[in-house]
Amino acid sequence: MSAQVATKAPTPGRDYGYGNARVRGMRSRLLTAHYFDELMCHTDISKIIGMLIQTGYGPDIETAIIHGRTPAAMDEALRANMVENFQKVMGFLNAEAHTLVGTLLGRWDMFNVKSIIRGKHMHLKPEEIEDGLYAVGALTPTDLHVLVGLEDIRAVVDTLVTWESPYAVPLRENLAAYGEGGNLATLELALDRYYFSWAASRLTGRRSNTVLARRILGLQADSVNLLTVFRLLKSDIGDIDPKSFFLPGGAHVDEALFSTLAAMSDVDEVLDGLKNTPYARQLEAVIATYVDEGSLSVFERALEDFVMRKALDAGRGDPLGVGITIGYLWAKQNEITNLRIIVKGTSVGMPADRMRKELILV
Amino acid sequence: MEEVRPTRSELLERRAQIGLAVQGMDLLKQKRDALLIEFMSVMDETLRLSGSLQKAVSDAQYSLAVAKSVDGNVSVRSVAMATKGEVTIDMTGTKIMGVSVPVVTKGRSPVRSSFTRGYSITGVSSRIDESADRFEKILDVIIEYADIETRLKRLGEEIQKTNRRVNALEQITVPGLKEQVAYIRQTLDERAREDLFRLKKVKKKIERKKAAQAFA
Predict the structure, then answer these.
(1) In Å, how far is B145's CA from the nearest CA of chain A?
(2) How many CB pairs under 8 A join A and B?
(3) CATH number attached to the domain at B10-207
(4) ipTM higher than 0.95?
């Protein structure tokens, strides 16, 4: 990316032996479902922190809790641990895996770019923006530091163009529209659409590893598209074409199905329209909870659960394939989300049953 | 006691003042009762809205806690950076039983749809979105609550003021006037008795004088 960043070049070729052995070693250190149950037995966050310090999270937690044993400090520690682990994994991947996994992790680059342009949009100080970034994608901490220090959104876009970053394309195309109305959603939507289209175009080919990565990307795109459909059911968007919210590259939900679903009037119809896809069973299983709670997050969590399990299944396939790495990275992210739920949930007095409902235990 | 001239005209004037004070007191009591009735109905509405506000705040806090725990502080903060908005309210005034009260009404509702908050929905989790929605609903209830609470406060102040006036009339003004009336009456009676006694004395003196002349 930027000239001043010296990134470690991936091992050339397609040899997965070394990398997968390292990943398997890291996977063996993931926390078990039983451990999460033990954590949830505690009602005091200090005890949970005390238990977690004994695990691989210890060094990050010890650094973060200097200013207090708060959920925010724990959040910071978990974020640091995730970034560190992801960077470590990316460091010993071969060239093919680096491309495939790097493409999937591009969503974190997107998250970072969005956070930066949001911060610039609100004229926040660079340090305020930098606090909320995950340097786990192609953009290194140094790249992000440079972008954060720039004056405004235009400067960020210009710099990304200079670096020949793929994210520069949608931003440059939509910068004029943003300038006219000041609507950040235009830039964000363009980024999202571009990312999925760009990633899908990078993940073409018949090699099993590419097919696997493409499937995970497709499930992610479907998941966002289905959630958009549910949101459209609840909102009046006036003259806007629902298709403008469609993200390309889905595995089971193409643009035609998306348009059909978006035109439906209630959740039952949407579920009926999804009967030929693997999502129908997942979503039908939580329909009663949705009716009780009236919250779309029920569907979102069910879809996240589905994508997570598919990514973890990928890790149980070819021992010399990219699935091992993908499975580990998703499992690690899930573990961190679970820990965050327990720490935050405990700190606000959330009942264990409610926390358990939010956890994805594998 | 205020210096009072014990004269009949003063007595009549004080009596008229007592009549006026009692009449004013009755009117103020009636006003106070009417204000109390209004106050109680506003109080019911305030309690209802206060309950709604408490529920809205608790729902929003809970929803934020869920969003922060599942998506992380960083994601919530990032989305928060994308959205900004303004709350517009209209301020007018009305009168309840002669009491001026401000009327606060919502301009444009602060509750927005997921598609108009400034971020793209394709990159924001529904948990964060719902959390934003619930906090906007708090704003909505707060505006209603501000209107009703100001009304309650003004009515309460007016009831207190009216009560003070009634008490002043009932406990100080009317008893004071009555005391003055009693004093004037007592003084006038005494003066009348003195006059009678003097007249009797004079009459006796005249009669004695007449008797002495007749005797001489």
Answers:
(1) 26
(2) 125
(3) 1.10.287.3240
(4) no
